[in-house]
Amino acid sequence: MKTNYLLTTSLVAASLFAFAPAFAKSDTAHQGDRHVAGSSASQSGPSGDELPRIMGPKRTIAVGAIDAIPGLAGPYTAAAAGPGVAAMLTTALDHSGRFIVAERNDLSQVLSEQELVANKIAQGSAGPKAGAVTPAQYLVVGAVTELSSGDKGSNLGIGIGGLPHGLFGGLSLNGQTGRVAMDLRLVNTRTGEVEDSFSVRKELASTGVGLTGGYKAITIGGNQFWSTPLGEAMRAALDEAVARIAADVSKGGWNALVAQVSGDTIYINAGSDAGLKIGDRLGVERVTGALTDPATNRVLAVQKDHLADIEVTAVDAKFTTGKFLQTGATEPQRGDTVIFAP
Fold first, then answer.
1. Do 190 and 315 fall within a single domain?
2. How many CA atoms lie within 13 A of 5 on its CB side?
3. Phi, psi of 100 (to 5 degrees)
4. pLDDT tens track, the chain, 342 positions
5. What is the model's pTM?
6. Which residues pair with 198 in a beta bridge?
7. CATH number of domain containing 303
8. Which of 20, 67, 93, 111 has its CA 20 to 30 A from that of 341?
9. Which among 226, 251, 276 is the end of a domain?
10. Parent domain of 45
11. What are phi and psi of 281, to 5 degrees?
C-alpha cells in the first residue's frame, strides 16, 4: 500500500510538471523584476553598486511606526503586517551598506538593559550607559496599504488522499500573484520636516507546482515567505524603497555631535564605522533658532552659526579626533553639530 501511494504521488507530480510550460508563459513578463524562487529563501537587498552614491560619512537612519490600513485585505492582519514590514525595511536598509541603522522597533529592550545598569541591578564595565542610544538623522514612517495574493485564473489541481491533516491537501499547478503597496515618508529628525513622501507598489506573478493552501502557516518575513509570490513582490518593493531613500539622503547633509573639546583638539561621536577617515574636513555649527510657519508650525528654515573648521587627524571605530580653527564668535562645545564639508 505504501509503495503504491508513493508511486501514485510521483506520477501525479510528474503529470503536473508536464503541464508547466503551458502555464509558465503567463509569468515570463515578470522574470526581469522578480527573485526566482529557489535561488534564495531569505531576504536580500539592492547591492551598493545599484544605489545612488552618498557623499561623505554614512547617515544614521531608523524605521519608525509602519501602520496598516484598517481592514487590510490579504492573508495577514493589520496588526502583523505593520510591524512585519517595518522589520523587513530595517533589514533591507542595513543590508544596503549605505546607512547606520538605529533600532527603534525593539528599543524598549535596549532601554531596559540600560536601566538595569543604571539601577545597579546589573554590573560590568562593558554594560550599556544610560543616554547612549545613537540618535537617527532620518526616520522612515508610513503605512502598508496592500499586502495580498490571488489566483491568476490558471489552475490545475489534483487531490491526493491520505495526506496528514494540515498539509494543505493536494498538489497543484497555480498561477498566483503577490501585491504589495505602501506609503512612506522620510523625516529629517533635526528639523521635523518631511524630506520626501512616496508610494511603492509591486505586483509579481509566478507559476509553479507545489502544495496548495496559502499563507496560513507562513510567517511574514520568514524564510518560506520569500519564496512565495507575495514575498517576491515584497522584496521588489523594499528594493525600490531603499533606492528612493538613498537618493533622498544623498541630497542632504551628514551630521554628528561634538563629544569633547580640549585646547584646539576636538572629539566627535562618529568614527570609521560611519565612514570617516583621516584628512576629512568637517565644520562645527550651533543651531540658534528656527523659522516656522505660523499656520502649520512647519519648520521653514533653521538658523545656525558656523563656529569652526575641523581637519580629522585620527579615527577610531566610534569616535574621531581632529584639530579645529575657530571661525565664529565662540569656540565649539560639547553638543554642537558637526557637518561634512566636502
1. no
2. 6
3. -95, 115
4. 545 544 444 544 444 444 444 433 333 334 334 333 333 445 655 655 577 777 778 888 999 999 988 878 778 888 888 999 999 999 999 999 889 898 876 656 555 665 666 666 656 655 555 555 677 889 999 999 998 887 554 444 444 344 444 344 444 445 578 899 999 999 988 778 899 999 999 998 765 544 445 666 677 888 888 888 889 999 999 999 999 999 998 887 788 899 999 999 999 999 988 889 999 999 999 988 888 889 888 778 888 899 999 999 999 988 999 999 999 999 999 999 999 887
5. 0.63
6. 184
7. 2.40.10.410
8. 93
9. 251
10. 2-251
11. -110, 130
Q: Where are the beta strands (DSSP E) in the chain?
A: 59-68, 99-102, 138-159, 170-188, 193-211, 255-262, 265-268, 281-292, 299-315, 320-326, 337-340
C-alpha cell, 133: 542610544
Q: Which residue carries 503541464 as its cell?
A: 19
Please check whether residues 121 and 240 belong to one and the same domain: yes
> Cell triple for residue 247?
537618493
